[in-house]
Design goal:
Length: 251
């Protein structure tokens, strides 16, 4: 059996994900940047949480956009949900990643990196009822302009539209957790040692998503005429103690 490639989990970007998508040595979770233990057995819970936070998915005949769906079970479940609800589903990702997903007639694949490929979505301006972007934003933040990313999503959202930018790492949330008794106990159990968790550094941390970044996105969405909120993940998800979701709704 061929050895799996070494994956630098903190060095992933659009181009590297495109490479991973076609590597049959990897599991479907590793192809989207996760060790198996962080996703296997959790995907139904993830989809249920997405549907709960985006109740318009339960309506019929809408236009849905998934930015960076990847190729695990989550996009397959979302495709089936859209089939049941008779939605038209647009998928934006690399050609290699999109090739891992089925091609029913209600699915439209648009290869490219968002928001750079937004010109190819011109017919959707102001017409998308639901936008899903899950476990993607931190890669945008590392290599692109997070505000341009959010601006393009807001431009696509229809009146009454809903968007979930989900599973965002938040360093501030992580440090708050590690400062608590529960966080200290978690760290000791995880490291199998009596060492204390890392403490919050003084001052801003360049290149790190924290409360200031996420609150800035909330304020930017609100300034654009939308309602925006930071919402927690279900406690059952393995990274709920350090990640949260951004929910945006157009009135």
């Amino acid at each position: 059996m061929t050895d799996k490639p070494d994956i630098e989990w903190d060095q992933l970007d659009y181009a590297r994900f495109a490479q991973l998508a076609s590597d049959d040595r990897l599991s479907m979770y590793e192809k989207i940047g996760f060790p198996d233990s962080y996703r296997k057995g959790y995907e139904e819970l993830i989809v249920n949480d997405i549907a709960a936070k985006l109740p318009r998915l339960g309506q019929c005949g809408l236009t849905v956009l998934d930015i960076g769906p990847g190729c695990s079970a989550v996009p397959h479940m979302l495709i089936e949900l859209c089939r049941r609800q008779q939605h038209r589903l647009f998928l934006v990702d690399s050609p290699q990643m999109l090739a891992q997903l089925p091609d029913p007639d209600f699915v439209v694949k648009r290869p490219g990196q968002f928001p750079e490929c937004a010109g190819g979505l011109a017919e959707l301006n102001g017409a998308v009822d639901v936008v899903i972007c899950y476990s993607v934003f931190h890669y945008v933040f590392a290599s692109g302009n997070p505000y341009a990313f959010a601006d393009e999503i807001l431009r696509l959202l229809a009146a009454g539209g809903q968007c979930l930018i989900g599973d965002i790492p938040n360093a501030s949330k992580r440090y708050r957790f590690f400062a608590s008794d529960a966080g200290i106990a978690f760290h000791k159990q995880f490291t199998r040692s009596d060492t204390l968790p890392p403490q919050r550094p003084d001052g801003p941390q360049p290149g790190v998503i924290d409360d200031s970044v996420l609150m800035g996105l909330v304020l930017r969405a609100r300034a654009a005429g939308a309602d925006a909120y930071l919402v927690p993940q279900p406690a059952e998800l393995p990274m709920a103690n350090r990640r949260e979701d951004l929910l945006i709704r157009r009135p």
